[in-house]
Amino acid sequence: MDAVLTLNEVTVAYHGDITILNRVNVSARKGCVTGIIGPNGAGKSTVLKTMFGFLPLRHGNIVLNGQDISRDPANRRAGQGVAYVPQSRSLFADLSVEDNLLLGCWPFRGDRARVRRQIDSVYARFPILAEKRRDPVSSMSGGQQRFVEFGRALLIEPSVILLDEPTAMLAPKISKEIYTFVRGLADEGMTVVLVDQNVRRCAEVSDYLYILELGRNKAEGDRQAFAEGSGLRDMVATWMDYKID
Ligand SMILES: Nc1ncnc2c1ncn2[C@@H]1O[C@H](COP(=O)(O)OP(=O)(O)OP(=O)(O)O)[C@@H](O)[C@H]1O
């Protein structure tokens, strides 16, 4: 009902006619974390890339705030209020924290006051980044670099944020901080779409979960539907067995 971003019956392919997503439906609501889980190769990252406009649709459509944006290119997403933090590192390693953040202000680079205001708001949210503002990001820990990426994504004041495996390869302590941060974004009213290999943590932080398998919707449900002893939980138990920290 209050869906902000929806994939309707979306089919995409990377090359030729090898279909990767097959009539997939995902709907992300305002102020909620929408989790997407599934085995390796299920198409979870492809869902986020599709939402961000990186892949042309073969079928279906993408609706953002009631508008069909299926044909809008990726470079319009930031202006539409959508931010994307990919799984792989996306920072300029030799540049300082501040320079990486400045690059994130590119869409509104002409408005110096806004640039300063937004960067300061990132520093207020993540004090460690203020402390290390002049350091090259390559000198920071993996977790700290993640926070630079989150900070950079927030500079455009997105209403939707797409997060791909935000805790991959990170220690449990920093992962816990990241899940708290992700939950906090939704509690602030942001629409969060979270792709995660860690089924248990994803289920804990999400309001609603989609389970994909081989590029198709397999199951879905809210947090209650995923509670201990539920059919949905039993269904993914095999995956959870080897995804527990
Ligand atoms: N750039 C690409 N070109 C061709 N095929 C790709 C590309 N990226 C992904 N694929 C294929 O698309 C399918 C889905 O990949 P995707 O990365 O979306 O899955 P995933 O569920 O996120 O997997 P993982 O959990 O391993 O990250 C896989 O078969 C993968 O090999």
From TrEMBL:
Its family?
A: Belongs to the ABC transporter superfamily.
Q: Name one GO biological process term.
A: L-amino acid transport
What are the recorded GO MF terms, alphabetically? ATP binding; ATP hydrolysis activity; branched-chain amino acid transmembrane transporter activity
Q: Which organism is it from?
A: Orrella dioscoreae
Q: Please identify the protein, giving its name as recorded.
A: Branched-chain amino acid transport ATP-binding protein LivF (TC 3.A.1.4.1)
**What's one Pfam family here?**
ABC_tran
Superkingdom, according to UniProt?
A: Bacteria
Which InterPro entries would you find in this protein's record? AAA+_ATPase (IPR003593), ABC_transporter-like_ATP-bd (IPR003439), BCAA_Transport_ATP-bd_LivF (IPR052156), P-loop_NTPase (IPR027417)
Keyword line: Amino-acid transport, ATP-binding, Cell membrane, Membrane, Nucleotide-binding, Transport
Where's the ABC transporter domain? 5-239
Tell whether Nucleotide-binding is among the UniProt keywords: yes
